[in-house]
Amino acid sequence: MAMTSFAQELLNQNQRLSEKDIELEQWGLKTRALTYNLDDVYVHIYYYAGRYSGPQHGIAYGLSVPTLMSIVRDNFYEKFPTISSFAIEHIGYCELEVVFSLRDNAILKEGMGDYLIDEAVDGALFDCFQMYYTGATMQYTYRIPTFDASSDKPPYSTGGTYIPPQKPTWNNNPDIPNLSEDCSKGVAGKYESVNIIGYFGEAKKDSIYNKSDYQSFLNKVHNASVEYSCSYQQYLDTEGKNIEHVITSPVRGEKYKVQNTVTPSTVATIHNHINGTPPSFRDVLFTAKMAKDSTLSKYKVTFIYNSSNAEYYALYIKNRSQATNFSEAFSEELDEATNNYKKGGKLDRFLIRKGLSRDYLSSLIAILDIFDSGISLIAIDKDHKATSYNAEKEYKSNGKERKYLKITFCKDKTY
Amino acid sequence: MIMKTYITFLTFILCGSISCFSQTRSMSDNSVRDTVAFMRSFETSKAAYVGKKISKVFDQFQQYKVPVRFLEAGGTSPWIDPEGRVYIDRIVISYIASSDMGERNKTSGTDLLYLEVEKPYMSSDEFDLLYFRDPYMSDEARAELMKSQNLFVIKDVTFYHTRDPQ
Q1: Complex ipTM, two decimals?
Q2: Model confidence over A124-172: pLDDT tens digits?
């Protein structure tokens, strides 16, 4: 059913049901708040679409935009004076979005945004389409929290008798896409990558020898519209005791591509992605190629920097032999025009089969692990806390192949 | 000798009749015996599908009673998108369920039909919301839903019958 006709159906059956008809504690809704453009708070409300037996002989009712506007006005807008306006619209088959504009940015500092995010309960999302198939109309239930964080009971307005569908258990069932925390496996290079970033700060400028410092790179990539790349090199002094840390002057590249320059003394390269994406397949192949080159035995890691949040991704060479084999086996799989896996190629077909093609971070983790790339992926945040990733290689249960791989991450709690 | 020839002749006629009956029956209920050839036929006769709504492909599967047991989508490259977003540029279907693909991949090979779609592309978030929000929905049900919504127009058709490394 098209979104517009669905919305029209809701309008035709507009009815506000009583809160008391539903046991609110048995279900929740997923609410997410995002600060946006400093002036707006987007409150993104996901509605459960379950099967309801309403008060009129099993008829269930949908929630229309006007109904939700009325509810928001009563429970939220009129009680909170810093909201200047709000708007509601359908943004998806089962979703309405409420957008609040605020008069006072200070509200964000007071934690309203955080409070709303806290309200984003971990409940499961139920399927709209089952309703679609059974021909039932649907009841949207919702909860809009007040800004009074001390209140145990934010105002609810909803109705109908809710018959919940079976809740999916996201973390225990490997048959569904899953990115769960698991720190049982170590990942090579996690802390060495963090240490290398620390060494960047020790590099000193010297224009005669084309030496730069790390701040120059950071200045270049701040709000940059193209990519820049630097090499990080280590030299021993003449006595062989002290290490000199060198960062080369930033090389300007194109919007989505830059040339990394390396020498036998290069330990790492770093370049920015202007759109904040993780390493591309081009970056993976570049790193594998460095491992393959016997003259570059000091090369360990390729960093990708995101200037908008000061976070890094590291591609760390953990096994040079595997990385060499990977480079030889899959160099042809790069789509030069898009930095992606070649459409219809071996890796693309694998990702399609495993349902990963739409999720580029999971794709990257899977390709690195499943195909024995010899390269680890590590994310490093602005506080230099590292997150490692793994993909399980055995994805069978009861002798049958599962579509989805189990992909895990391990984030440092302290460092 | 004459009797033997007569029996052989009768046997031949009888077998021919059975064969003929079997073939007629097969044609009448539109069942497909060679699924690989069936899948390949979409590529070889892609002119019939390019520019048409995606339901035309699903209709063909339905007409020949071949279930769509696998449905996935591929996306554009986030690495050349200003906001790093992914948009759906191809729908991939198969009569082989994902649970059987691993074994088939090692033996007879996996069959995938890539249906590239026309712009404007749907964002992967929107696509997930429409078709993959319920992780327990079967791919057959997703295919039914996609057919009924009929939001995609086919741009190109490619068939892959391969044994991949994994």
Answers
A1: 0.83
A2: 222 233 322 222 223 333 333 333 333 333 333 333 222 223 333 333 3
Indicate whether B57 and B111 sit together in one domain.
Answer: yes
- Verify cis geometry, omega within 30 degrees of 0, for the bond prior to B120: yes
Residue A120 distance to chain B (closest CA, Å): 17
Q: Indicate the number of domains in chain B.
A: 2
Full domain range(s) for residue B16: 1-30
Q: Do B11 and B39 fall into the same domain?
A: no
Residue A399 vs residues A70, A395, B102, B163: alpha-carbon distances, Å: 54, 10, 10, 19
How many whole angstroms separate alpha carbon A62 and alpha carbon A48? 11
DSSP-derived 3-state class of residue B36? helix
The verdict on B15 and B38 lying in the same domain is: no
**Alpha carbons A124 and A27: distance in angstroms, whole number:** 9
Residue B75 with chain A: CB contacts under 8 Å: 357-358, 360
Both B10 and B79 in a single domain?
A: no
Q: In this structure, are residues A91 and A108 in contact, taking their beta carbons and an 8 Å threshold?
A: no
Q: Does A346 touch chain B (CB under 8 A)?
A: yes
pTM of the complete model = 0.68
Q: Which member of B72, B88, B164 has the closest CB to residue A355? A: B72
